[in-house]
Design goal:
With 381 residues, the protein is of the alpha/beta class. The protein is built from 11 helices and 20 strands. The strands form 5 sheets. Strands 3-4-5-6-7-8-9 form a 7-stranded parallel β-sheet. It binds pyridoxal-5'-phosphate (PLP).
Length: 381
C-alpha cells in the first residue's frame, strides 16, 4: 500500500518502506516487558517520521489505548486516527488553547504552576472536570514542576478543579543502564508520587522499560523502540526494524585519478573510481554530516550504502538533492542507472546510520523527508 498523496515509486528518488506489522510487534514486545503497566505509544514528530495516520491505527489495532504527542496539532491528527484513545500533549498548555483541548477531548501535560492555574481556571469556567497530566522534572531541567514544587502539589486547591489522570517524569539517560542519575531520578519521583496517592504514575521511556531496577508504576511511554531503535545500546536490539530506505541511482560514472567528487572537492580519487549518484540529499533529511571527506579507500566515519548487497561508502559532501557513493568494488554489470541502493536497512540500522552521521537514530527517523514514495506494509488496512 502506498500512502495517499505519495508519488509513485518509479518517479521517486527515495522509497521509504514502513513495516506496520513490525511496529505492532514492537509494541507487544514492550508491553510484555512493562511489568503489567499500561503501555502507551509516543507518536510525536509524525510518529518519529513514519506517519501518524498509518502508525496510530496499527498501534491501536495491537491494543494501544494511550498516545503522547508534542504538539496540539499532532494531537488533533491522532484523535482522527484513534477516536476512543487517551491523548496527551507533552509540550504543555499554551495560553488560550483550552477550548481546543476540550473540543477534541485532549489532555495537556501541565508543567508549571502557571499552566496548572490556567487549566484549573478553564475547567472552572466550563464547569467540567477535564483531564490533564502533571509533569515533575527530576533532572532534565527542561519542562515540569521542580521536585520541591511537586511536594507541595497536594496542598494546591486547583487540583480539585480538574482530574489529574497521570503524574509523570522523564529519564535523562535511561539508555545508559549504569548511569547513577537513573536511580536518583527514580528516588526523586518516588517522593512526589507517594505524596499524591491515587494518581496513576508514569516514568519509563523506551530505554527506561529495560532498566533492571525501575519501579513498575502504571504506564510506560515508549517512542524510539516502537520504530525499531535499540533501547539497550550495550546489548542486542530486542526490537524489529520498522523503517527501510532505498535511493535510486541517477547516474554511474568513472572518475579519473586525482579528481575530486562533490562540492568543495572534499573527496579525492587516488585511482580511477566508479561513482554512483543517488537521488536523495540533505533536503530529504539525510544529514549532510554523513559526508565523506578524505580520499578513496579511507576508513571514514561517514555515510554508507548497501549496493547489490555490498557495503559502499559515501564519497564527498552530501548535496541538497544528491549523494555520491564509491561503488568501484561492485562488479560493473551488477548495477545500472535506475537501480536502488539501501540507505537504511540490513546492517545499516537507524542507530548505525545515526552513528555514521555523528548523531542519534532519533534524528534520522524524525528527519525522514517528504519527497520519498512511502510504501506501507502490513497493518490493518
Ligand atoms: C519523547 C518522549 C518519550 C519517548 O522517549 P523514547 O526515548 O523515544 O522512548 C517519553 N516521554 C517523554 C516526556 C518524551 O518527551
Amino acid at each position: 500500500m502506498t500512502a495517499a498523496g505519495s508519488i509513485p515509486e518509479t518517479a521517486a528518488g527515495g522509497i521509504l518502506h514502513v513495516d506496520l506489522d513490525a511496529l505492532a510487534s514492537n509494541w507487544r514486545t514492550l508491553r510484555d516487558n512493562a511489568s503489567g503497566a499500561e503501555t502507551a505509544a509516543v507518536v510525536k514528530a509524525n510518529a518519529y517520521g513514519i506517519g501518524i495516520e498509518q502508525a496510530v491505527p496499527a498501534l491501536a489495532g495491537a491494543g494501544c489505548r494511550t498516545f503522547f504527542v508534542a504538539h496540539l496539532s499532532e494531537a488533533i491528527r491522532v484523535r482522527s486516527a484513534a477516536p476512543g484513545a487517551a491523548i496527551y500533549v507533552l509540550n504543555g498548555l499554551f495560553s488560550g488553547t483550552g477550548p481546543t483541548y476540550a473540543e477534541f477531548d485532549l489532555r495537556p501535560v501541565l508543567g508549571s504552576f502557571e499552566e496548572i492555574e490556567e487549566w484549573a481556571g478553564f475547567c472552572r469556567a466550563q464547569r467540567r472536570n477535564l483531564k490533564a497530566a502533571i509533569h515533575v522534572d527530576t533532572g532534565m531541567n527542561r519542562l515540569g514542576l521542580t521536585v520541591p514544587q511537586g511536594l507541595t502539589l497536594r496542598d494546591r486547591t486547583e487540583l480539585k478543579d480538574f482530574e489529574t489522570t497521570l503524574l509523570m517524569s522523564h529519564f535523562v539517560s535511561a539508555e545508559e543502564s549504569g548511569n547513577p542519575l537513573n536511580g536518583q531520578q527514580i528516588e526523586a519521583f518516588e517522593a512526589v508520587r507517594s505524596s499524591l496517592p491515587g494518581i496513576p504514575a508514569s516514568l519509563p521511556n523506551s530505554s527506561g522499560i529495560f532498566l533492571a531496577d525501575r519501579p513498575g508504576y502504571d504506564l510506560v511511554r515508549p517512542g524510539y523502540a516502537l520504530y525499531g531503535g535499540n533501547p539497550t545500546p550495550d546489548r542486542v536490539n530486542p526490537m524489529k526494524p520498522v523503517v527501510g530506505l532505498e535511493a535510486r541511482i541517477v547516474q554511474l560514472r568513472w572518475v579519473e585519478a586525482d579528481h575530486t567528487v562533490g562540492y568543495n572537492g572534499r573527496w579525492l580519487a587516488l585511482a580511477r573510481r566508479r561513482i554512483a549518484t543517488l537521488s536523495v540529499g540533505y533536503a530529504d533529511g539525510f544529514p549532510r554530516a554523513a559526508s565523506a571527506r578524505g580520499k578513496s579507500g579511507d576508513e571514514l566515519l561517514a555515510g554508507m550504502t548497501l549496493v547489490a548487497g555490498r557495503p559502499c561508502p559515501f564519497a564527498g559532501n552530501v548535496s541538497m538533492d544528491l549523494i555520491t557513493v564509491d561503488v568501484t568494488d561492485v562488479p560493473e554489470n551488477e548495477i545500472r542507472r535506475g537501480d536502488t541502493v539501501t540507505l537504511i536497512g540490513g546492517d545499516l540500522t537507524v542507530d548505525e546510520v545515526g552513528r555514521r552521521a555523528g548523531t542519534i537514530g532519533y534524528e534520522i527517523l524524525t528527519g525522514l523527508g517528504s519527497r520519498y514514495a512511502r510504501a506501507y506494509h502490513g497493518g490493518q488496512g
